[in-house]
């Protein structure tokens, strides 16, 4: 294939890119700050994330992806164009882009991705489900007629699939993931404690004391916020058990998605999954006790893949070298004039 190949994992929380011959070149927050009047991009990634909740009215903080799909077309196109030009500016050929997307995208949502990448300067585009790419990136061997379940818990969606014979036998996308946990904590504090906290504070609470199970030894964290009633800044303490109950509903939705897949596959594939287990990928899988929660709730062995947050991007990189083999499963590049 002519032209450089680039794999982009479009995530609600993070955007990760893999470039042919270089490997993973970045994994950064999918956050952009731009001028509120001109639309000019001012910062991307960690720098823009640090501005969240601290900007004047002249600067907007934008998250270009919502629930795993494009929510701001122009900003996303500008981000991708800036990135692809870095690695293809010395080539007369347009780059080939493989994009990681949720498994249950609608035709209209997929068309938006194709239009976006075409507008960003891509010569050829291929879209691949997060779960399939994650299975490749987690080094799951699924060329034989034997099923394995992959659960990719990202920022906006949890993608669940059973892979076998180089294909997806069944899949489900649950609109419940890591970003929902963060929002749950913000809502809980406002509703139950009359405390308002920003996104970054809630994210910190989730990472430090959040969990999918109740810890055997409760821990607490002192944080900062604002009293909703008085408007005054305050210090407050929140416990790991409070956070568990705050996020439980969205954790349970992921479990429901897993159970739905079990009920939709054949008895033979179900038996394979009980033997091979469930492989967790995505940064959401790092929530304390997520693997133990799913294992105890399903009775199926669960393991977290190595570097779970990078599995989709790694899988897109592997796909670049086997796209001919994957054509039989429907993965091939569409060409743009």
Can you offer a commentary on this structure?
The protein is of the alpha+beta class and 337 residues long. It has two domains: 5-132 and 311-335, ATPase, nucleotide binding domain (Nucleotidyltransferase, domain 5, 2-Layer Sandwich); 139-305, Nucleotidyltransferase, domain 5 (2-Layer Sandwich), CATH 3.30.420.40. It is built from eleven helices and 19 strands. The chain has a six-stranded mixed beta sheet, with helices on both faces. Strand 1 and strand 2 form a beta hairpin. The longest helix is centred in the last third of the chain and has 25 residues, at 240-264. It starts with a strand and ends with a strand. The mean pLDDT is 90.
Task: Describe the protein's topology.
Elements: E1 5-10, E2 14-19, E3 23-29, E4 32-35, E5 41-44, H1 46-51, E6 59-62, E7 65-66, E8 69-70, H2 73-88, E9 96-101, H3 107-119, E10 124-129, H4 130-137, E11 148-153, E12 158-164, E13 167-174, H5 178-193, E14 195-196, H6 199-209, E15 220-227, E16 233-239, H7 240-264, H8 267-276, E17 278-281, H9 290-298, E18 302-304, H10 311-320, H11 323-326, E19 334-335
Parallel strand pairs: 1-9, 9-10, 11-17, 17-18
Antiparallel strand pairs: 1-2, 2-3, 4-5, 4-6, 7-8, 10-19, 11-12, 12-13, 14-15, 15-16
Helix pairs in contact: 2-3, 4-10, 5-6, 5-7
Oligomer kind: single chain
Average pLDDT, rounded to a whole number, is 90
What is the CATH class name of the largest domain? Alpha Beta
The percentage helix is 25-40%
If helices are DSSP runs of H or I spanning 4 or more residues, what is the number of helices?
A: 11
What's the count of strands?
A: 19
Low-confidence segments: none
CATH topology of the largest domain, which one? Nucleotidyltransferase, domain 5
Question: N-to-C SSE series?
Answer: EEEEEHEEEHEHEHEEEHEHEEHHEHEHHE
Number of domains: 2
From the spread of the alpha carbons, the general shape counts as flat
At the fourth CATH level, what is the homologous superfamily of the largest domain? ATPase, nucleotide binding domain
- Kindly estimate the percentage of residues that lie in beta strands according to DSSP: 25-35%
N-to-C span = 16 Å
Rg on CA atoms, Å? 21 Å
Category from helices, strands and their pairing: alpha+beta
The largest pleated sheet is described as:
6 strands, mixed
Main β-sheet, spatial strand arrangement:
3-2-1-9-10-19
